């Protein structure tokens, strides 16, 4: 299995400025994953193509990020996390400039692939840099910094993209990354601890090939299901991806020096990330997709009004954020996870009851609460997954977690789209313009309850070393 980590810091010390730097780079990476949506018509007009063709630039970016994460873990171990993190920022920044300078769709797509390669290294390697320098007692504070980009970027992306496209040009979606990336690179040179790599660390080529192909096939298949409907090609890709990942798992369990140390799944608090945590992120990721469609197609609202209402989720995320750590410390991980998932399921069911006659302040309050529950659950899962992981398993746990987050985001949109099509053809909830959305939200609420059930099975003192919610001996890490 994976050998000792060569560049662990000699002593752990909480560094909020480092965590803030990593969070800022995450925000750039997450934002660029979806910000192009509102700029597609402008880009299509400049390149003289149809708007639907521009979607390939988003798909290329997301697929590259997902496929690059497994390799980034090995790169950080082989060459040192500091070196790879700085390289990631540089690649992302230069690629952003190339995106802005692109003269046709082909060049833009290739530049987005390069940008995705930088993003693939920034996310897991940046997290690894922070986690290695953070003692367990400060893990909640560290993850509080790292969680907010994933919560805010999907909500802010339409507003940022719309503002730049309307008042400047679509090029500024990428140009803004240049000064930000330059500042982040300089800050990284000063803040990230200088570490060494393991020159003797070999790359598990077979494990990498199977994992990369599996993740890439799943992401492309999910993109196809979510954007273009069910078909033979997306289904075949999903099947091939699942088969490749199963083969990768089989290989890494028997390999002497595997790409990932799969013993991390023996830790119950980490395993919750791939069970209840995956379901939680999947259902939550469907909300930014379903809500704007409900408001525009179901209620007949214009995009501006729809976007303003969805911003209530963003306000809920921010409003509750200062309280998430005290809440987890007061009640512990298990009660918080059970509450967050169940409360989120209730808000989904409440969204199913909305109609064009529902008072807008009531809709705003509902989405505000949904955003708050979303923030609590994200923070709890992000912290508890590393609560019982030993230092030698941290790189594998971090890379696996980052990959699952990418898959959950794609699966959320795909599952939401599938439910919409299902209830559009099966008129269980009537024939009105919002009937399909009513069914989709109820279905997503039912899916979310699976996360609640999984959280109930956690030990009552799960992750106590991190939450410090109890004085008694923490749960055994295995089993």
Task: Please give a structural write-up.
It is a multi-pass membrane protein. The protein is built from 18 helices and no strands. It has helices at residues 16-34, 40-47, 55-79, 81-101, 105-132, 139-167, 172-175, 177-191, 205-228, 232-254, 268-274, 276-298, 303-331, 333-352, 360-384, 394-425, 435-456, 464-467.
Search tags:
479 residues, mainly alpha, 18 helices, 75% helix, globular, disordered N terminus, disordered C terminus
The count of helical stretches stands at 18
Overall average pLDDT? 81
Low-confidence stretches: 1-11, 470-477
Number of strands: 0
Computed CA radius of gyration, to the nearest angstrom: 22 Å
* Alpha carbon gap, first and last residue: 19 Å
- Which outline best applies? globular
Portion of residues within helices: over 70%
- As a percent range, the share of strand residues is under 5%
Topology of this protein?
Elements: H1 16-34, H2 40-47, H3 55-79, H4 81-101, H5 105-132, H6 139-167, H7 172-175, H8 177-191, H9 205-228, H10 232-254, H11 268-274, H12 276-298, H13 303-331, H14 333-352, H15 360-384, H16 394-425, H17 435-456, H18 464-467
Helix pairs in contact: 1-5, 1-6, 1-8, 3-4, 3-5, 3-9, 3-16, 4-5, 4-8, 5-16, 6-13, 6-15, 9-10, 9-16, 12-13, 12-15, 12-16, 12-17, 13-14, 13-15, 14-15, 14-17, 16-17
How would you sum up this structure in a few lines?
With 479 residues, the chain is an all-alpha fold.
């Amino acid at each position: 299995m994976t050998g000792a980590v060569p560049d662990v810091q000699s002593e752990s010390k909480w560094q909020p400025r480092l965590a803030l730097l990593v969070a800022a780079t995450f925000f750039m990476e997450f934002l660029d994953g979806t910000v192009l949506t509102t700029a597609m018509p402008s880009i299509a007009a400049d390149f003289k193509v149809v708007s639907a063709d521009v979607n390939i630039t988003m798909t290329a970016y997301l697929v590259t990020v997902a496929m690059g994460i497994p390799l980034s873990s090995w790169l950080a171990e082989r060459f040192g996390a500091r070196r790879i993190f700085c390289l990631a920022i540089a690649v992302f920044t230069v690629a952003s400039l190339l995106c802005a300078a692109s003269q046709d769709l082909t060049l833009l797509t290739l530049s987005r692939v390069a940008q995705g390669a930088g993003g693939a290294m920034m996310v897991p390697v940046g997290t690894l840099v922070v986690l290695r320098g953070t003692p367990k007692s400060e893990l909640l504070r560290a993850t509080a910094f790292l969680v907010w980009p994933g919560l805010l970027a999907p909500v802010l992306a339409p507003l940022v993209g719309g503002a730049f496209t309307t008042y400047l040009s679509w090029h500024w979606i990428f140009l803004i990354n240049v000064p930000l990336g330059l500042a982040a690179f300089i800050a990284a040179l000063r803040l990230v601890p200088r570490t060494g790599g393991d020159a003797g660390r070999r790359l598990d080529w077979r494990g990498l090939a199977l994992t990369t192909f599996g993740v890439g096939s799943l992401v492309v298949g999910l993109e196809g299901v979510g954007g273009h409907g069910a078909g033979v090609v997306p289904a075949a890709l999903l099947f091939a991806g699942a088969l490749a990942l199963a083969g990768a798992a089989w290989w890494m369990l028997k390999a002497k020096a595997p790409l990932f140390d799969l013993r991390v799944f023996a830790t119950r608090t980490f395993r919750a990330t791939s069970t209840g945590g995956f379901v939680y992120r999947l259902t939550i990721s469907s909300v930014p997709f379903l809500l704007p469609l409900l408001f525009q197609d179901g209620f007949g609202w214009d995009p501006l009004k729809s976007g303003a209402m969805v911003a209530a989720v963003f306000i809920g995320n921010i409003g509750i954020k200062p309280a998430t750590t005290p809440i987890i410390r007061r009640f512990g991980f298990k009660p918080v996870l059970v509450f967050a998932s169940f409360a989120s399921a209730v808000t989904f069911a409440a969204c199913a009851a909305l109609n064009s006659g529902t008072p807008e302040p009531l809709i705003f309050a509902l989405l505000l609460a949904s955003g708050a529950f979303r923030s609590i659950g994200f923070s709890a899962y992000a912290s508890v997954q590393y609560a019982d992981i030993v230092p030698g398993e941290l790189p594998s746990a971090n890379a696996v977690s980052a990959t699952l987050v990418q898959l959950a985001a794609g699966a959320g949109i795909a599952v939401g789209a599938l439910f919409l099509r299902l209830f559009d053809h099966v008129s269980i909830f009537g024939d009105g313009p919002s009937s399909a959305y009513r069914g989709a939200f109820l279905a997503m609420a039912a899916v979310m309850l699976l996360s609640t059930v999984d959280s109930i099975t956690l030990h009552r003192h799960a992750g106590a070393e991190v939450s410090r919610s109890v004085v008694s001996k923490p749960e055994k890490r295995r089993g």
